[in-house]
Amino acid sequence: MAVALDLFQLAAVAEILGAGSIVFALFFGAFQIQQFRRDRRDRAAAEMMTFFQTPEYLEGWLEMAMLPAGITVEEIRKRGPTFENRLARTTIVVESLGLFVFNRTIPLALVNQAMGGFLRIAWQRLRPWIEDERVRLNAPSFGEWFQWLIERLEESPALKKEPAHVKYRAWTP
């Protein structure tokens, strides 16, 4: 009887250890998945910043930023096809960014923090041209992810861009 009791106790301990191992494996697996997602987000953010710092892309941004507020489509067209091609290439890059956010590869809050102000300015200046291109080219999807991205940024009050020098004035190392 004593031997049977000891075997019963040993089986119970083994069962508890087995269940504990499974619980530990589940928690560890969940932690690993969370770490994988964080690493993927960080890699995507680093790649995004590298991609957006190419000379060609920066030149397009500079040209967009220098456009006067309220510029008309006609005024943009007067700058010539080379200028419009650079605007189109820059728009396509922003399209990719919108798609990355949609697919949750890059968090919307990170995009807002890194370049929300530039994106908003670019959209304000280019919206009439993009909408005109949709009609002119019979391409209703031209600039669709750019527009989607701006609409998501504007939907959330938490993402309203406050300049870093104001928002983080009290930051200390």
In short:
This protein has 173 residues and is mainly alpha-helical. Helix content is 78%, strand content 0%.
Which key terms come to mind for this protein?
173 residues; mainly alpha; 2 domains; 7 helices; 0% strand; elongated
Question: Secondary-structure blueprint of this entry?
Answer:
Blueprint: H1 2-51, H2 55-66, H3 73-78, H4 81-102, H5 108-136, H6 144-155, H7 164-167
Helix pairs in contact: 2-4, 4-5, 4-6, 5-6
Q: What proportion strand? A: under 5%
Which stretches are poorly predicted, pLDDT < 50 over at least 5 residues? Answer: none
Radius of gyration: 26 Å
- pLDDT average, as an integer? 84
- How many strand segments? 0
Q: What is the succession of H and E elements?
A: HHHHHHH
Tertiary shape: elongated
Tally of separate domains: 2
Largest sheet: none
Number of helices: 7
* Ends apart, CA distance between termini: 68 Å
What does this structure look like?
With 173 residues, the chain is mainly alpha-helical. It folds into 2 domains: 1-40; 52-161, no CATH class. It has 7 helices and no strands. It has helices spanning 2-51, 55-66, 73-78, 81-102, 108-136, 144-155, 164-167.
